[in-house]
Amino acid sequence: MVKHQPLQQVYEKQLCLSFLTGIYGCRWKRYQRSHDDSSKWECAWFIILCSTFSLLLFWAYFWLEAHNDYNQFNWLLYNRSGEWKDRTVPILATTAVGFSYITFLMILALCHISLGQQLNLYWIHKVVCFLPQVGVLAALITTVSGVVSIDDVWGDEWDIILISLQSTGPFLHIGALAAVTALGWLVAEHVVRAERTKFHMILLLVYLSVLLALYMAPLAISSPCIMDKNSLKSRPDVIGRRGAPMLAPENTLMSFNKALQQGVSSLEADVTVSLDGVPFLMRDRTLKRTTDIAKVFPDRQHEDASLFNWTEIRSLNAGQWFLENDPFWTVGSLTGRDRNRIRNLTVCSLVEMLRLAARANRSALLYLRRPPPEHPHYKTWIMDTLWAVQRSGISQKRVTWTPDTDRETYLVGPQIVTVYPVNEPWLYSVLWCSGVSSVSSDTPQVLRKVPYPIWLMSPDKYCLVWITSDLVSIAIVIGIFIFQKWRMSGMQNYNPEQIMLSAVARRPSRDVNIMKEKLIFSGTKTQEKGKNQYLTGNTVGSLHTS
């Protein structure tokens, strides 16, 4: 008699897989998972997810490189709204949160594809009570809106992307090559299947095309930092743009003193003519942002700065706003002595600044803003400025002036000077390698610490890096496809009869062998019993016949 013993089927806990499918699609249970092909709807959502990730990656890169001009961005928005706020903080915070969220979903989706799990982006996210699909669409729509807004408000800043690629291009190429090479694992997993379809062939063709384009990308990469060391020109001079506005309020005497302490070659300032013909330094059209005019002359805070006489202007405090607004997030690093000096600063006249430059044997770059038509010095504003230059005692050869409308690049003798703000070491390095002789900067204390370009590579060395990275990528991709082919062929030749259900606990090999023997013995007994019954039945049938 055969005694049937029930076999209990026990599954090993797959915590990692449960986490992936649970977070992405709220499929926490084993029976909820599926290895079937994803629906067209879910594939469409995956494409949207990839598009959102790519756009957010570009958006994050833009703001990372635009750090050079955050203050300029806030100033542009101030001119539109009339209220000073650091609007880069909410933009950076939302970008970081959105990019992290989309990147996390992207990683989960790729893990699903790698493990052969069906994509199923769940409607209700039980962890944060949020709609992932709405999150993806919100990130996509918000990013597109941000790009359009930046193009309208700050369109000139797109140039920073092209300039930054001259510095980061070689490294971005290697990073992109590594990422696409790693994606070869997923592509090979789908292509080497026995049941190949047109989709698989198109996928393979697209992947190889992208890979080939990356292999040849260095032919299109042009960076001034790829050059021989012997061709590197001398270090560009640094011009103190409104002094050193990170260390003291802009266009004040203290700010220019701080810039001279950092070794600048020239001082740059914005010049406006007062109602009584005194040239003074002021960047904005009004006095609202950089003085306490709201307290002293509350009814006139929106008037043009040139419509005040010099006595009224001199009575205003030009430093307290810096301590309160902290436009560069540097007030916390100032000494107590510097803070006390800043609290008592006043508006600086042009004569004071030029006398300081003359004593330090430095040059001056002046941007002249023409007063409004109703101003009494509307027609003599340039002559008023020249008289101030003469009274200061500085050599006129050391003074260069230009209308405020011309703020790109200009010639000073045989030298090319860029007045585009250069505040980051990477941008300073690119311009250095490009042969620029002088740069205008809000951060002379930062550029002073850049004695050499951040990176410099000879053409031969870069060519070696390029060829080596391509060969390594080719070897890895070929190895991946060979391994996936071997892995799939092994799975196809696998005998399902070799699968054995395990008990609750992992049994040692001796127990497994005993269980196998019991099953074989029981099966043998059953076959013998069936054979005996068959023989007995035949014998009885023969007796009845006879």
Largest sheet: 8 strands, mixed
Number of strands: 8
Q: Quick one: overall form?
A: elongated
Residues in β-strands, percent:
5-15%
In the predicted model, the low-confidence regions spanning at least 5 consecutive residues are 123-133, 406-417, 494-529, 533-546
Gyration radius (Cα, Å) is 37 Å
Helix content: 40-55%
Specify the structural class.
alpha/beta
Total domain units: 2
Mean pLDDT: 82
Give the termini distance in whole angstroms.
Answer: 33 Å
Query: Total helix count?
Result: 18
Chain-wise SSE layout:
Elements: H1 15-25, H2 40-65, H3 70-81, H4 88-115, H5 132-153, H6 159-191, H7 198-216, E1 237-241, H8 253-261, E2 266-273, E3 279-281, H9 293-296, H10 310-314, H11 320-325, H12 336-343, H13 350-359, E4 363-368, H14 381-392, E5 399-403, E6 409-412, E7 415-421, H15 425-434, E8 438-441, H16 444-447, H17 459-492, H18 509-545
Parallel strand pairs: 1-2, 1-8, 2-4, 4-5, 7-8
Antiparallel strand pairs: 2-3, 6-7
Helix pairs in contact: 1-4, 2-4, 2-5, 6-7, 6-15, 6-17, 13-14
Would you write up a description of this structure?
- Residues 123-133, 406-417, 494-529 and 533-546 have low confidence and may be disordered.
- The two termini are 33 Å apart.
- The chain has helices at 15-25, 40-65, 70-81, 88-115, 132-153, 159-191, 198-216, 253-261, 293-296, 310-314, 320-325, 336-343, 350-359, 381-392, 425-434, 444-447, 459-492, 509-545; strands spanning 237-241, 266-273, 279-281, 363-368, 399-403, 409-412, 415-421, 438-441.
- The protein has 18 helices and 8 strands.
- Strands 1, 2, 3, 4, 5, 6, 7 and 8 form an 8-stranded mixed sheet that branches.
- It has 2 domains: 34-225 and 460-486, no CATH class; 237-448, Phosphatidylinositol (PI) phosphodiesterase (TIM Barrel, Alpha-Beta Barrel), CATH 3.20.20.
